[in-house]
Description:
The complex is a heterodimer. By secondary structure, chain A is α+β, with helices and mostly antiparallel strands. Chain A has 4 helices and 5 strands; from the N terminus they run βαβαβααββ. Helix content of chain A is 29%, strand content 32%. A 5-stranded mixed beta sheet of chain A has the order 3-1-2-4-5. In chain A, a hairpin with a 2-residue loop joins β4 (116-125) and β5 (128-134). By secondary structure, chain B is of the alpha+beta class. Helix content of chain B is 28%, strand content 31%. Chain B has a 6-stranded mixed beta sheet with strand order 3-1-2-4-5-6. The N and C termini of chain B lie far apart (39 Å). Classes of the chains: A alpha+beta, B alpha+beta. Chains A and B meet through α4 and β5 of A and β1 of B. β5 of chain A pairs antiparallel with β1 (7-21) of chain B, so a sheet runs across the interface.
Amino acid sequence: MVYLTRKIEFSASHLYHNPALSAEENQRIFGKCNNPHGHGHNYTLEVTVAGEPDPVTGMVLDLKELKEILEREIIQRMDHRFLNYEVPELSGQIPTCENMVRVIWNLLEPRITQGTLHKVRLYETPDLFAECYRNGAGSR
Amino acid sequence: MSDGRKLRVELGRRYRFAASHRLHSPQLSEEENGRVYGKCNNPYGHGHNYVVEVSVSGTVDPATGMIVNLADLDWFVEREVIEAFDHKSLNEDVAAFRNRVPTTEYVCMEIYQRLKHFRLAKLERVRVEETSNNAFEYAGEETHDRMAVQQGRKAK
């Protein structure tokens, strides 16, 4: 098995607010992330696909195709957007790294037809990330 | 395509500390220490800017969208590791290294031991970067036989 990782970047704004909680609770739990007009990050997304290289092409999957999938599913949906209001897949969820990584997984998994989606890692800052993988796959 | 296995989510957070150490084993002769540890055996020690990457897993709370509140994780790592290691001599100031060479393998394992009691999420692994070219990972004893401490070294 070979693991292939492609990295993309996008920029987006968000805020953390749970309408089921009081203003004080929102402030206590989410702190600065609860500021009403939101704030932004430069996100880095690493997508890892596992598979055997095709004997003819030597590729697990065509990187160009993966690039197009990421452009269509992630960049067009999330880049320069306000995640809370403009990404329907996130509506009703707090757009934390943890929730975003699951949404991204669910967007990408059905699109990867050569090899299998192995891991998705999303950096909100260089010091904070969440990653998502199937139980038993391990994190690498 | 989906294969029915449950999705797992981990949260990773990076922390930093600066510390000095000296690699010297009392079980080896002076010559052997010099040969094994090279410059790291210089008697007065030397320092690094260490990066510690902590990965935890758990259920994502639907109310907060979080595995664990970062403030709680930060507070715990700060108290258990950063306060004890930052701007210290690992050999002299950290009890675990009084009788153990403070290689980054052992630093990584010591940090894991300090963090594994975190109650709000499950510690998955600790990665320590001694420099931007050296990284070590430890994931506890269950996977010790298979994974042990993994070292990555970038080619110079």
